[in-house]
Amino acid sequence: MSRPHPHRRLRLVTGGALAALLVVAGCTSNTPETDSSSGGTDSKAVSANDDPGKKVVIGFSGPAADHGWLAAINSSALAEAKKYDDVELKAAEGTNDASLQISQIETFINDKVDAIVLLPTDGAALTDVATKAMEAGIPVINVDREFSSPFAARTTVLGDNYGMGVSAGTYACKVVKDKGLDDAVIAEIAGIDSLPLTQDRSKGFKDALKACGQNVDNRVAAEFTVESGEKAASNLLQAAPKIDVIWNHDDDQGVGVKAAFDNADRHEFAFIGGAGSANAMRWIKDGSMAATVIYPPTQAADGIRLARLIAQNKGLSDLVQVEVPKRIVLNAPVVTKDNVDDYMALGFES
């Protein structure tokens, strides 16, 4: 799955700022960045930062790779570290056990690594040990699931769940406009409704639709699994004989969602996905999916790069600031047939 996590946080946008965000999303969401995304290719930024520097030891701890998105998180981090001769990576075994992950960080502290990249199985549960590492002089790069204290991380790298919803909603508005639909029926297949990340995605979608005078007419929730996606999508199709646009939050879940569409022979709508799986990329290329919204599987790879720079006392070469920023929220671009080849390398297998 993509993977959705309960401790992702959104950037809060209110009032006029939301309108500005929607305009920007509409202008930029379909435009790939010209710089290669970390973990996607062998390319690295063209700057002196890539020249070999002081040898650094980085500890990496992530969750168990029990679905596509998390597997991509872990593999991209390992691949990124291998690109640098001045990086020695100590990678702990992936786990969904907070107690075991705490033990892994304790080991990194005892080993006196130069930096730690940590995607916590539970941000709150790992806050104390991350703070301990920081107090020991070891910078912690927090990935995807935030800690509950600002003192637990030197830098935090996040995807943008609210932004995913905004991008999906903005694209849905474009579909409605391009097709000249007067009374569009828009549906949503969410993930687990109790999770903040799902709530953030749905809010962004709703807010973007509202900006163009649309709303969600039919909504169901699944559980980020293939089976639940198929069941939820089947129920949705039975309840809605007419649909113009469907946004499914998660491309791993989308395997089941698309199976339901195929079984019912329902393809009259624009199908929008979420996360950016390899399946979604292939569906876009063959025309069976209109678009997907990226939730970057390269966050830990970005964490590795940032850990290296921080441990070597470097900043980001494209910024005037001499230090790595405290917080980085990655973009949630829309991938369509026009730009799918640019993002294909980032597609993860479900």
Structural commentary:
The protein is elongated. 40% of the residues lie in helices and 15% in strands. The strands form two sheets. The chain has a six-stranded parallel sheet, sandwiched between helices. The protein has a six-stranded mixed sheet with strand order 7-6-8-9-10-12, sandwiched between helices. With 350 residues, the chain is an alpha/beta fold. It folds into two domains: 18-30 and 161-294, Response regulator (Rossmann fold, 3-Layer(aba) Sandwich); 48-158 and 298-327, Rossmann fold, CATH 3.40.50.
Q: If you average the pLDDT, what whole number results?
A: 89
CATH second-level architecture of the largest domain: 3-Layer(aba) Sandwich
Secondary-structure content class: alpha/beta
Identify the CATH class of the largest domain.
Answer: Alpha Beta
Number of helices: 11
- Topology as a string of helices (H) and strands (E): HEHEHEHEEHEHEHEHEHEHEEH
* Amount of beta strand: 5-15%
Identify low-pLDDT runs. 1-43
Q: What is the fold named in CATH at topology level of the largest domain? A: Rossmann fold
Counting structural domains, the number is 2
Strand order of the largest sheet: 2-1-3-4-5-11
The total count of strands amounts to 12
Distance between the termini: 7 Å
In CATH, the homologous superfamily of the largest domain goes by the name: Response regulator
Which descriptor suits the 3D outline? elongated
- Major sheet size, sense and barrel closure: 6 strands, parallel
Residue share in helix:
40-55%
Instruction: Please give the radius of gyration in angstroms.
Output: 20 Å
InterPro entries: SBP_2_dom
Domain Periplasmic binding protein: 58-314
GO cellular component, one term: cell envelope
Pfam families: Peripla_BP_4 (PF13407)
